[in-house]
Specification:
The protein is of the alpha/beta class and 264 residues long. It contains ten helices and 14 strands. One zinc ion binds next to loops. The site of one zinc ion has 6 residues, from helix 2.
Length: 264
């Protein structure tokens, strides 16, 4: 098994999961980089996995489907802006797909959009692999457009409960800007400082910082650490939370997300 991050637009990655001469693509916002990779590596596209409906994740679905006949898996609760002329296979929470000889579990992760799903492959040669779209990023999480902070927090809790060896494949290279914010929240976090240095080196060489590792994210990602006393204290101070709010996990999480929205 191989994971290839195909860069697209300014900061998207279209994940190509390769198994022998077959491949699955996740969130093809553009078709051109995928066609090129399929040709270069002589791969047959067997499936297209969609995490949510935003154009930078689905823009290439129609053309790829029409050219290859690959099945398109689409979140059942994500019912807007469906591509025309494509027969969709709707996926629901708890469902297991069989793709290229692997089990793929569908996990509901609402918040960024109402019907956002993640795809979890528990047993690969690389260890467990998670395709999480715009829900979990390295050092951050997606903006809450259609859901609530409570939903986003519970979605991230679900992802955080996966095995710590999980390789995390988000759809954007937002790591450095996320880590700048994370350091504003937790300036004393040594793991975070070390990770920032590693990621800066990778970006200087033009290398993706992804896949990330769930074990590392638990140490450095403030959105997975909203219950940590240091994060809670920093957020409470920044947002001026009342004593009641400080003890409310969702209120702290919501204030943390709001802080990031306005962070420059
Ligand atoms: Zn999105
Ligand atoms: Zn996106």
């Amino acid at each position: 098994m191989k994971l290839i991050a195909l860069p697209a637009f300014s900061d998207n990655y279209l994940w190509l999961w390769q198994q022998g001469k077959h491949a699955v693509v996740v969130d093809p916002g553009d078709d051109a980089p995928v066609f090129e990779a399929l040709a270069t590596h002589e791969l047959t596209l067997t499936a297209i996995l969609v995490t949510h409906h935003h154009p930078d994740h689905v823009g290439g679905v129609s053309k790829l489907h029409q050219a290859t006949g690959a099945k398109v898996f689409w979140p059942a609760r994500e019912n807007v802006a469906e591509p025309e002329g494509v027969e969709l296979e709707y996926v629901m929470h708890g469902q297991t797909l069989e793709l290229m000889g692997q089990h793929v579990e569908v996990i509901d992760v609402p918040g960024h959009t109402a019907g956002h799903v993640a795809y979890f492959v528990p047993q690969t040669e690389l260890g467990p692999v998670l395709f999480c779209g715009d829900t979990l990023f390295s050092g951050g999480c997606g903006r809450i457009f259609e859901g609530t902070p409570a939903q986003m927090m519970s979605s991230l809790d679900h992802l955080a409960s996966l095995p710590i060896t999980t390789k995390v494949c988000p759809a954007h290279e937002y790591t450095l800007s996320n880590l700048r914010f994370a350091l504003a929240v937790e300036p004393e976090n040594n793991d975070l400082q070390t990770y920032m240095t590693q990621c800066q080196h990778l970006r200087e060489q033009g290398t993706p910082t992804l896949p990330a590792h769930l074990g590392t994210e638990l140490q450095i990602n403030p959105f997975l650490r909203a219950r940590h006393p240091d994060v809670r204290r920093a957020v409470s101070h920044h947002a001026g939370l009342s004593a009641t709010e400080q003890n409310d996990d969702v209120a702290v999480f919501a204030a943390l997300r709001e802080w990031k929205n306005n962070f420059k």
